[in-house]
Amino acid sequence: MLRLPDELRGAFKEPLGPVYTDSERLLSETAGPIVAVGDVVTYHLRTADRDPDVAVIDGKTKREAVGDEIRRVLSGDNPRIEVENPAATLSEELLAALRDAVESDENTVVVVTEGEEDMATLPAILVAPVGSLVVYGQPDEGMVGVAVTPETKADARELMTQLAGDTDAAFETLGV
């Protein structure tokens, strides 16, 4: 549905919010729902006794399989939605799954079985309610916490319009 053009790859490397190395400090920043994008981020939140309302995982970190301890902590009883999402893309399946997971009354895990979850942060910001916190990993630095506000939603929408593909259909799939 949407693809990250090669010339924009650098623009998506800058963190969209503050970087945290301490889960407890990150969690003190919000009382609202949390959407976690990434296996290691989800692991750290769960080991800090905060199961994210929505987690998007793919079984990898830095394109390598996660270790046994992370895999153990990420397994659980939460409802799961399995999707395919090729690298550097946002598939319609992933967008619909994010929307459904955010709308669910249960903590839900979106599992990318084929591809990767790296691009899920922007649509997560768009679909999460104002007052939420979207958390994703910043490789070799920590966790980025993005407070969902009307301003961060507008910024995420603007960044998504720079992706190649049908952004109107993507926004429609997200329900935004």
Salient structural properties:
176 residues; alpha/beta; 7-stranded mixed beta sheet; 3-stranded antiparallel beta sheet; 12 strands; 26% strand
Topology:
Blueprint: E1 2-3, E2 19-20, H1 23-27, E3 34-37, H2 39-47, E4 54-57, E5 60-61, E6 64-65, H3 68-74, E7 80-85, E8 89-90, H4 92-103, E9 108-115, H5 121-127, E10 133-138, E11 142-147, H6 150-161, E12 164-165, H7 167-174
Parallel strand pairs: 3-4, 3-10, 4-9, 7-9
Antiparallel strand pairs: 1-8, 1-12, 2-11, 5-6, 10-11
Helix pairs in contact: 2-3, 5-6
What can you tell me about this protein's structure?
It is a single chain. By secondary structure, this protein is an alpha/beta fold. It has one domain (2-6, 18-164). The protein has helices spanning 23-27, 39-47, 68-74, 92-103, 121-127, 150-161, 167-174, and strands at 2-3, 19-20, 34-37, 54-57, 60-61, 64-65, 80-85, 89-90, 108-115, 133-138, 142-147, 164-165. The mean pLDDT is 95.
